[in-house]
Amino acid sequence: MSTDEAGQGASSAEGPGNSAENHGGSGRNLIQLVTPAGERISHPEFDPWVQDIADEQLCSLYEDMTVIRRIDVEATALQRQGELALWPPLLGQEASQIGSGRALREDDFVFSSYRENGVAYCRGVDLTDIIRVWRGNASAGWDPYTINMATPQIIIGAQTLHAVGYAMGIQNDGADSVAMTYFGDGATSKGDLNEAMVFAASFQAPVVFFCQNNHWAISEPVRLQSHVQLADRATGFGIPSMRVDGNDVLAVMAATRVALDRARRGGGPTFIEAVTYRMGPHTTADDPTRYRDANELEDWAAKDPISRVASLLERKGLLTEELQQHVRDKADAVAREMRSGCTTMADPEPLDIFKHVYSAPNTWLDRQQDHYSRYLASFGDPAGAASEEGAR
Fold first, then answer.
1. Residue 64 and which of 57, 130, 160, 195 are 20 to 30 A apart at CA?
2. Phi and psi (nearest 5°) for 273?
3. pTM metric for this prediction
4. Sign (positive/negative) of CA torsion 343, 140, 199, 220?
5. Which residues are part of the catalytic machinery?
6. pLDDT (tens digit per residue) in 58-94
7. Burial of 348 by CB count in 10 Å (0-12 exposed, 13-18 middle, 19+ buried)?
8. What 8-state DSSP symbol labels residue 285?
């Protein structure tokens, strides 16, 4: 299958066992390789893209999803205990993040929103760096160029513009790496994303738009945002799209690999809508019980991405007690490491706010720092004086 055929074929893919999760209009069926009951189903078009996922790799995906759920639960507990100011849970979206994150190459570059902590885990982000911003100790958690992932963007949809600009740079360099940008269903109503898709389509930039449709943009349901499926919005820009079961880690991986391969071969951008569900609040400042029906939550709990893979492993005779204990131990160790990093994190010095604002010296910023340091000194603030010495 050629790259163009792969992209166009994926745009209308239907296969045995696909469930129709439509949000406005008749739409298309979901790409699905594993049912909620854990049954592996055949899909001739997408099976070849995950044929290398043998038993060992499947167990590894199960471990990844379990670990990032444990990270999420631990971070939520840290916020409730006053150790973090805020936290955006990813509960329920583990398959979307692990399936896509593990499909990326090391030289691909990720531009994410604030919820893609599972993707950050795949990229090798230090666990303490994941929570540094949420503790209020830094403006950014990590050096983007050490792991090829930009720090999370809080402004809804802004990262999609950054991704397209980076992808155009890849084109100019003649490389075959890809820019990958993540966003939620709410971002599809923002001008930034639509402008990004205009540029991506016009210049055929090697970028993958990965939409995690978790059904709720804070308290606004996706059915109010769009009367057609979100994947269909890309069609108007001339961008091929796929609609995948976002709780099926194998289907997500297959779809992502198709899109990445298409971009690497010069086929331009692809839009992926991963249909999943946000099981928890938008952030820890949100109370979803005020706007969400408990029955809806119960329905989606039956499609849990981790339970689905566990059922598949059980069918294959791989879900042994030894494997489960290994995964539990790994998840607990990661949670302990993150908690320790959080509670022992040093408070920033007052003048640290001026660090890393610009890549080169800036007289305008230097003048602000001088004024602020003299302001602190007027209170006899030894911390401010120490910070000033350290900043020189």
1. 160
2. -105, 110
3. 0.89
4. positive
5. 278, 282, 291
6. 999 999 999 999 999 999 999 999 999 999 999 999 9
7. middle
8. T
